[in-house]
Design goal:
By secondary structure, the protein is an alpha/beta fold. It folds into two domains: about 1-160, Protein-Tyrosine Phosphatase, Chain A, CATH 3.90.190; about 235-350, Diaminopimelate Epimerase, Chain A, domain 1 (Roll), CATH 3.10.310.30. Helices cover about 40% and strands about 15% of the residues. The chain is built from eleven helices and twelve strands. The protein has helices at about 20-35, 50-65, 85-100, 135-145, 150-160, 170-180, 195-210, 215-235, 260-270, 285-290, 335-350; strands at about 1-5, 10-15, 40-45, 65-70, 105, 130, 240-245, 245-250, 275-280, 290-295, 325, 330-335. Strands 1-2-6-3-4-5 form a six-stranded mixed beta sheet, sandwiched between helices. A six-stranded mixed beta sheet has the order 7-8-9-10-12-11, with helices on both faces. Strand 8 (about 245-250), helix 9 (about 260-270) and strand 9 (about 275-280) form a beta-alpha-beta unit. The radius of gyration is 21 Å and the shape is globular. The termini are far apart. The model has no long low-confidence stretch (mean pLDDT about 95). The structure holds manganese (II) ion. Manganese (II) ion binds near residues 132 and 136. Manganese (II) ion binds near residues 73 and 136.
Length: about 350
């Protein structure tokens, strides 16, 4: 569990996907309420994915007498184009119906960062805050609880934007972005490592923003680690091979810690690259199958290449089955699916 007290407001960082997540949220809020000395009964949800489980948690908290405020920028921009987007639209409607004026759901195009959906300290008397476990969720929660600095909104938009630009914010923002870049990937054999690293990073950054020197120097050590990871990425990019014209692959399985943002940017820039592929030993599919192939499309080709055409149309998105496919520009598959389905289709359609 990733939690912080921000200006004494208990904050839980979580993405709610299942019943256990719902219980975690409800229990966190109950516990916060039992220590709460103020006169409000507000719980803020900010930057949290609009899932069925999120709606369930909101509903339960309303039933227990809390006022729930919801601020988010994950609304669907335009008509839903697939099943996942349709589910977001339904959940959004449900939240509007439950919360009325307290529900503000917008789209990323209008609000690149969730911090722009709150005023400084607007929720400093809240019982609890539930936020997305990423820099956008963290900065938005901090601003809500009244911990702000001059460039926060601008930094938050950069931190939540294109991966290769995330490290280009203000100096304090770079400490967070570079720290995030060296959080270990999810490893099924050490499931808690990623969460613990995130907890420490968020806690240090919150302190650093408020002027704590010791926390700042711990963040600077992570920057040194990031600089080494960038060097590893530069070396890895040189090992790229061509699967078929237009498709570039780098094998990072069991390699040293690298910076994904740097590697992705280098691969995107390779002449004629329409798809780049990372073969890796970590990730949700690798947890079941040992290896996973993660495919992505550079921005310039996102309107012309659709990765969903590289797998059979009836295949279910499920890590255990060896496929994760939600959007047209990202695809993750197991090694058997890569060789039997993806590579043959690529050779026919991409060039
Ligand atoms: Mn966000």
């Amino acid at each position: 569990m990733i939690t912080l007290k921000i200006n004494s407001v208990p904050t839980l960082f979580i993405k709610a996907f299942n019943g256990q997540d719902v219980r975690t949220i409800v229990e966190f809020v109950r516990e916060a309420a039992s220590f709460y000395a103020g006169s409000e009964n507000t719980v803020l949800f900010i930057d949290t994915p609009i899932t069925g489980a999120t709606v369930e948690a909101v509903e339960k908290l309303k039933d227990e007498g809390f006022r729930v405020a919801f601020r988010d920028h994950h609304g669907i921009d335009g008509e839903p184009t697939n099943d996942r987007e349709q589910k977001v639209v339904s959940a959004t409607a449900k939240l509007h119906q439950l919360l009325g004026q307290d529900c503000k759901i917008t789209v990323r195009r209008l609000h690149p960062a969730c911090s722009t959906l709150v005023s400084p300290g607007e929720f400093k008397d809240a019982v609890a805050i539930i936020a997305d476990p990423d820099p956008d969720g963290l900065t938005a929660a901090m601003k809500s609880a009244g911990v702000v600095y001059d460039e926060l909104d601008r930094d938050a938009a950069i931190l939540d934007g294109a991966p290769q630009l995330q490290v280009t914010g203000s100096p304090i923002s770079q400490l967070l972005a570079k720290g995030v870049a060296v959080i270990p990937s999810y490893d099924a054999s050490r499931p808690k490592d990623r969460e613990i690293a995130t907890q420490r990073l968020f806690a240090d950054w919150l302190k650093a923003v408020q002027g704590d020197k010791t926390a700042t120097s711990r963040l600077e050590e992570r920057v040194a680690e990031y600089d080494r990871a960038v060097q590893v990425s530069n070396a890895l990019a040189k090992t790229a091979t061509i699967v078929t014209p237009g498709v570039v692959l780098v094998d990072v399985a069991d390699k040293d810690l690298y910076d994904p943002g740097t590697l992705n940017a280098l691969l995107e820039q390779m002449p004629g690259c329409k798809i780049w592929v990372i073969r890796k030993s970590l990730g949700p599919i690798a947890a079941f199958h040992g290896i996973q192939y993660s495919l992505a499309i550079p921005k310039a080709y996102q309107d012309t290449v659709d990765l969903r055409t590289l797998i059979p149309t009836d295949v279910k998105s499920d890590p255990e089955g060896g496929v994760i496919s939600n959007v047209s520009f990202l695809l993750h598959v197991s090694e058997p699916v890569w060789y039997s389905e993806v590579v043959p289709r690529m050779k026919q359609t991409i060039s």
